[in-house]
Amino acid sequence: MIQKILFTLSLCSLLLPLNGQIKGTVIDTESNPIPFANVAIYTLPDTTLITGTTTNEQGSFMLNTDNISSDALLRISFIGYETRTAPALPEQTISLQPDTTMLEEVVVEGDLPRIRLRNDAVVATVQNTVLSRAGTANDVLKRLPAITGDNGEFTIFGKGKAKIYVNNRELRDASELDLLSSADIKEVEIIHNPGSGYDASVKAVIRIHTVKKSGEGFSFDVRSTYFQSENTDLREQLNLNYRYKGLDIFGTVRYERYAHYQRSKIAQEAFVDTLWTQKNDLYADGVNTPLTTIGGINYEITPSHNVGIKYTVTSFPWEEGRKSTTLSDVFADGTFYDRWESNENQTQDNRPRHRLNVYYNGKIGELKVDFNSDLYRSSLSTASSITEKSQEYDNRIITSDNQIRNRLFATRLVLSYPLWDGQLQAGNEYTRTRRDDDYVTDIQEIASTFTSIHDDNNAFFAEYSRNTPIGQLSAGLRFEKVSSDYFDDGVKMEEQSRDYTHWFPSFSYGNSLGNVQLQLSYTTKTIRPAYWQLGSSIFYANRFTMQTGNPFLKPTIVHDATLSGSWRFLQLMVSYKQERDVIMQWATQMEENPAVTLLSTRNVDKLPGLTAFLTASPKFGIWSPQATVGIYKQWLTITSIGKQVRLNSPIPVASLNNSFSLPRGYLLTLDASFQGKGDDQNVELLDNQYRLDLGVTRSFLDDRLSVIVKGHDLFHGLTTNIKAYNDRLNIYQFNRWDSRQLELTVRYKFNTVKNRYKGTGAGEVEISRM
User: Fold this and answer.
1) Cα–Cα nearest to 162, from 138, 200, 191
2) How far apart, in whole angstroms, are the C-alpha atoms of residue 101 and residue 79?
3) Could you tell me if 350 and 364 are in contact, meaning their C-beta atoms sit under 8 angstroms apart?
4) Tens digits of per-residue pLDDT, 100-143?
5) pLDDT, position 251
């Protein structure tokens, strides 16, 4: 009788509608969790979509149900795997099979999914792909779609300089990317339109996530890099780390020597009452030798509560400087006027730069808390002496001293909380900046100045994201109030002082149509002028050319709409930007003497621009190529020399990065890039630019010892040749640098583990403006 009752109850439970939650885990054939797989619930017989979600990083999902029929079905899909349909049971584990038909032509199973869309980002898988053998994080980023740069400085094509995060910690030291081995990287996220949680001036973000590691004890990593070009450059670095239970102590000592040269031909045509023509040959050399020391402590109070402190000091124990010689021939209406030889000797007294960061990262119940505070201080004194010899007129000796002092205090608080089956993030960011600029010169035509800028930026932001039956939705809003006071000799200048109040909305929508993933996003951003662009000091180049800032500059407001898509190994991105009050380099003629050019900046009303690129990342056996083609086009009309000039020519770009996995652990890389002619703001690019790099990497002793040999810019094609249109002046300039060089890197690692520092930093944008 009891058995009959139990059977009857079981039968009723199968026939009655489901209520409560449906949860489960999605795994692959090797029982590894599959994060961010799409899970949707349908009813029969009409297969109506009821609701949906995506799995978290552990491959788990949970759906809230309300009176759904017992014959409802779950549909689970993820790019690179076969879509599976299963009964909507209260709890289960679902295994997905690799989609071999999708991979058979060009990609092996172990290499997918390599590039896909997820929420607000383009995600590139590194673990278990050829990218894991690229060398360092620097080498990985150089091989990802639409990313250009090196040595910790990377730009997203059509967007601008990217802010880089490693495990949600903002990268403050560019060399950290060289410290991070590509084998330790799980994936990289590329965000073309960062939302409201980022500073309004951040135009692109790169987030690196590493493979979770465990280990304790002492470890070190020592690296020596030698560069040979026309000069010799060095990078010597030692990283130390000690971990025991919740305690993590780390330190870094790094010495660098950067010797550089520049060779330029510069022609200037000033169309005033007389046609003044300058033909200049510039030869410049300089050396920088920073010594950086980093020390810090992390402490894991509990797995949900972490605190830490990090102190960085960068000193310059050896004299810094730059020497240049400029030979100038000057013509008036085509007739010889004068010949100058200008020799400048510039020395720098770079006082140590100090930066202190403290952080707390924790979780209270379901509330996540991330707090950071930063202090920063720097001081730079530059003494310059110019000896100008004239063939027809008097000789000149011009001396100047410029001292710049920067101070910053910043805080950042971010709170995250699950709400209505989604995630709510809110916070505050505050920066307080002080900059003093003391400039003294002995030339009568130029006034000595002492100016100060006091900036206070207080921002509040909120962003909400949620998976819905129609896709992933995210919306955010950032409010920034900026107060900028400008002082001249201690007196506040009301006309140059500014108060800005801006709202910066953001929105994104993502969805999958079969194996095609789409993402549409919109953001509003700003570009604040650098502090040197706001200065009023006038710097002497020669008796017909000087340079100054513009304290009346306004920040640029950028409206950006971006559509991204991916299918198999193809990725497409199209972005349209509308920039208001664009900051542009601009030259005018001095009223008291029109023959003298004053180089400065100004705001232009608007600048629309379109960016598009297509990337293919297949794999053919040992060969893993990545090909990218793209284009940037602007629409700009300016008035130059009394005429309307249209600067609308598009700039084409292309790259082909190749990795060859050879026997005995060798990795061969061959990378080529190209940038064509076109227009960028008021500058016309007159020549094509190209670059070819070749490298070989070999690891020994179970990857503890590695040797890298690379040739950079083998054909010395990284040159620029431009024409700049100005008010009554045309500037033609050709530049060549010591970009062709040979690199040899030897690196040894002992028991290396990543330090646990979780500080994300505050005030990064202000520090970069300094």
Assistant:
1) 191
2) 12
3) no
4) 443 333 333 334 346 666 666 778 888 877 777 666 787 788 77
5) 92
Q: For residues 715 and 672, is the Cβ–Cβ distance under 8 A?
A: no
Cα gap 174→161, rounded to integer Å:
13
Q: How far apart are CA 378 and CA 394, in angstroms?
A: 39
Predicted pLDDT of residue 602: 94
One DSSP character per residue, 442-462 reads --TTS--EEEEEEEEEEEEEE
E strands, 590-687, where? Answer: 597-616, 623-634, 637-640, 643-646, 651-661, 666-675, 678-680, 683-685
158: left (phi over 0), alpha (psi -120 to 50) or beta: left
- Main-chain dihedrals φ then ψ at residue 177, nearest 5 degrees: -65, -35
Nearest to 562 by CA among 522, 612, 599, 591: 522
Res 587: pLDDT: 94
Q: Is 690 helix (H, G, I), strand (E, B) or coil?
A: strand
Torsion, CA 496, CA 596, CA 585, CA 763, rounded to 10? -50
Cα–Cα distance list, 601 to 308, 588, 598, 643 (Å): 42, 10, 10, 20
Helix (H, G, I), strand (E, B) or coil at 56: coil
> Terminal CA-to-CA distance of the chain, rounded, Å?
84
Give me the long-range contacts of 457-460 (CB less than 8 A, separation at least 24).
457/429, 457/430, 457/431, 457/433, 457/481, 457/482, 457/483, 457/766, 458/428, 458/429, 458/430, 459/199, 459/200, 459/428, 459/429, 459/430, 460/426, 460/427, 460/428
CA–CA separation, 367 vs 373, rounded Å? 20
DSSP-assigned beta bridge partners for residue 210: 185
Q: Which of 520, 618, 517 is nearest to 114 (CA)?
A: 618
How is residue 606 written in tokens? 């608007």
Residue type, 364: I
Using DSSP, state whether 72 is helix, strand or coil. Answer: coil
Nearest to 159 by CA among 612, 539, 588, 544: 612
Tokens of 763: 């005030």
Q: Residue 20 and residue 2: Cα distance in Å, rounded? A: 27
Residues in the chain predicted with pLDDT less than 70, given as ranges, are 1-20, 29-32, 35-36, 43-52, 56-58, 64-71, 78-81, 98-120, 133-135, 145, 151, 157-158, 168-176, 178-179, 212-215, 752-770
What are the tokens at 478? Answer: 């950032």
pLDDT score, position 511: 84
Cβ atoms within 10 A of the Cβ of 700, count?
11
Of 191, 193, 155, nearest in space to 561 by CA: 193
Distances (CA, A) of 508 to 40, 75, 405, 577, 614: 20, 24, 41, 16, 21
CA separation for the pair 427, 413 (Å, rounded): 5
pLDDT at 674: 94
Contact call for residues 669 and 694 (beta carbons, < 8 A): yes
Task: Give the contacts of 71 (CB within 8 A, at least 6 positions apart).
Answer: 43, 44, 87
Q: Where are the beta strands (DSSP E) in 676-728?
A: 678-680, 683-685, 689-700, 705-712, 719-725
Which residues, in sequence order, are bridge partners of residue 217?
243
Specify whether the CB–CB gap between 165 and 207 falls below 8 A. Answer: yes
> Distance (Å, rounded) from C-alpha 183 to C-alpha 132?
5
Q: pTM of the full predicted structure?
A: 0.75
CA atoms within 13 Å, Cβ hemisphere of 618: 8
DSSP conformation letters of 179-219: HSBGGGEEEEEEESS--TTS-TT--EEEEEEEPP----EEE
Return d(Cα 155, Cα 203) in angstroms, integer: 10
Distance between CA 299 and CA 307 in Å, rounded? 5
Q: What is the pLDDT of residues 648-696, one digit of tens each?
A: 999 999 999 898 888 887 889 899 999 999 999 999 999 999 999 999 9
